[in-house]
Amino acid sequence: GAGVSQSPSNKVTEKGKDVELRCDPISGHTALYWYRQSLGQGLEFLIYFQGNSAPDKSGLPSDRFSAERTGGSVSTLTIQRTQQEDSAVYLCASSPTKRGGGTDTQYFGPGTRLTVL
Amino acid sequence: AQKITQTQPGMFVQEKEAVTLDCTYDTSDPSYGLFWYKQPSSGEMIFLIYQGSYDQQNATEGRYSLNFQKARKSANLVISASQLGDSAMYFCAMRGANTGNQFYFGTGTSLTVIP
């Protein structure tokens, strides 16, 4: 079946502009995650959704970052007034599990490479 | 607090040899899962193997095995018979039963397989 998809695959924007990144999880997956990965670095957790609600927003770097999920499916990560330090690959993942722990792994999308000039 | 530590930023292995990538973790959760992912230069994250904290046996998936030592809080990945295609970043991750669905990742190990 279809995996996690993300769009756009690449985004180049000017400093100060707003951007929207989209994630389409695997159908039926209740949990959805956003991560940020700077060049050569590990994954930085941003936010995760269980259904449409976000129990944990602790990773969002600033109030310029926000995310929503509608219909328990598609999620949008919005970065307002982008800064050069926002340049990174933004990865989305989904997981079928409805509760914590357990064997369900995350399935990752291909990522969106954001470049802020 | 949950924490994953990968102390090897880079590793080299000769083709066809075995290699061990280290991962230690810290958690207060009585039940947790440990995961390994591979990230080739293309950027995709590929799930490799899973170990549950109550599993009695070490997990194996083809050439991948997980050397799980619960008392030491370590979950090292062993890759046998390395292939050139194994060259990639490898990330260890953990999810605890009491921390909802959040995954915690290590900083990764870059593996280079030498022909």
Describe the overall structure.
The complex is a heterodimer of chains A (117) and B (115). Helix content of chain A is 0%, strand content 48%. By secondary structure, chain A is mainly β. In chain A, the strands form two sheets. In chain A, strands 2, 4, 5, 6, 9, 10 and 11 form a seven-stranded mixed beta sheet that branches. In chain A, β4 (31-37) and β5 (44-50) form a beta hairpin. The N and C termini of chain A lie far apart (37 Å). The model of chain A has no long low-confidence stretch (mean pLDDT 90). Chain B is mainly β and 115 residues long. Chain B has no helices and twelve strands. The termini of chain B are far apart. At the A-B interface, β4, β5, β9 and β10 of A face β5, β6, β10 and β11 of B.
Keywords:
heterodimer, A: 117 residues, mainly beta, 0% helix, 48% strand, globular, B: 115 residues, six-stranded mixed β-sheet, four-stranded antiparallel β-sheet
Concise account of the structure shown:
The complex is a heterodimer of chains A (117) and B (115). By secondary structure, chain A is mostly beta strands.
Write the layout of secondary structure elements.
The complex is a heterodimer of chains A (117) and B (115).
Chain A: E1 5-7, E2 10-13, E3 19-24, E4 31-37, E5 44-50, E6 53-56, E7 65-69, E8 75-79, E9 88-95, E10 107-108, E11 112-116
Parallel strand pairs in A: 2-11
Antiparallel strand pairs in A: 1-3, 3-8, 4-5, 4-9, 5-6, 7-8, 9-10, 9-11
Chain B: E1 3-5, E2 10-14, E3 19-21, E4 24-26, E5 32-39, E6 46-52, E7 60-61, E8 64-69, E9 74-79, E10 88-96, E11 104-105, E12 109-114
Parallel strand pairs in B: 2-12
Antiparallel strand pairs in B: 1-4, 3-9, 5-6, 5-10, 7-8, 8-9, 10-11, 10-12
